[in-house]
Structures are given as C-alpha cells and as structure tokens.
Amino acid sequence: MFILSLPKIEPVPGLSLEQLLARRRSIRDYTAQPLTLAQAAGLLWAAEGITAPPHLRTAPSAGALYPLQLYLVAGDVSGLVPGVYRHLPDQCAIDLLAEGDRRRDLAAAALGQSWLAEAPLILVFTARYARTTWKYHQRGIQYVHIEVGHAAQNALLMAVALNLGAAVVGAFNDERVAGVVGLNEEGTPLYLLPVGHPA
Length: 199
Description:
By secondary structure, this protein is of the alpha+beta class. It has one domain (2-196): NADH Oxidase (3-Layer(aba) Sandwich). Helix content is 32%, strand content 26%. It has six helices and eleven strands. It has helices at 17-23, 37-48, 103-109, 130-136, 139-161, 174-181; strands at residues 2-5, 35-36, 50-52, 56-57, 68-74, 77-78, 83-88, 93-99, 121-127, 165-166, 188-196. The strands form three sheets. Strands 1-8-7-5-9-11-10 form a seven-stranded antiparallel β-sheet, with helices on both faces. A hairpin with a 4-residue loop joins strand 7 and strand 8. Helix 4 crosses helix 5. It is globular and about 45 Å long. The N and C termini lie far apart (35 Å).
C-alpha cells in the first residue's frame, strides 16, 4: 500500500455555474498533453470530496452512507506513476493499488472503444450496494444509481472549469473492468469517465 496525499484544492476562477453547464459536452478526442496531479485532485474532489466534517461530500448520498468508491486509472499524469489508484476522500489522498498503464485494458473492457486509451486518466466509478441496501433494501439500488449520476456530473463540470474534456461511458463488460481495477465481489463498476485536453 502506497498512499499519496493530494494537493490542496484551489478555487478555479472564471466561469459561472450557468456557463459551465452550457459548455459541458462529451469530448472523446484528446491531445497528447498530460494532466497534472492538481487537475486529477480537482476531479476527484468534485466527484466525492469532503465538504464538511466529519464526512459530508460534494454529492448527495441517501442516508449519508456513501456507497461509491472511485478509482483513478492514470496513464499520463505528471507526478503519478502510471497505475490504478483508489481514492481516499477522508484522507484527501490516493492509494496505489497496481503499477502499469491499464488504459488499453479498460478500452478493451469497454467493448473496444479505443479512444479511452488516449485520455491521460480515466475515473472508474464503482459501488458497494450493501452500504445502502442494508438500510433501504431494494430501493437502495436506485439511490446508488442516482448518486453516481450526481458524482459524475460534478466531475464533468470540474473538467469544464479546468478547460479539460471528458465523457461518460456505460458500455463495458463489468467483470473485465472489475479485473482491471482489482475489485472484489462487493464492488460493481458503474461508470467510466475519461478526461484529457480536448483535441
């Protein structure tokens, strides 16, 4: 286990919320320019960062149970060894789980969508349903799906604020994505979100 603290999130000057919403588009074509660790940290914070102690976050969660687990698949991020990282929002840190560039593996798992491998990083949103269903039973599954939409939209808007391009991908083989990021049987992949500089 190698835990790396993330840089402090600095306010991003410029666009209003209305402008961010108007400019948000699905971008699937990226330049070769790497992302910075600060940009990666901003995306992670937007998706599930802590906004108030002890654990309130940027996205609402039914019962404040927070079933999502976010992974960062880094291929070309300055300051990061290529690999798979688990986001630790309570520590404002990431944990290196496996070294090596896994973007092509994710692209293959996403039914051969080769453009994913061109993004400097890919966020993988996963869920542990039991964190919500123990309280809300079957209805909890719907709550988890609502939550991942909130979290992904936050990351998409942060990408626009950082002058980056992003898209969401839901077409993939669950087992293959789980294998790439090293999920156990409790985790289920829900969304892939590649991010890069728009071409």
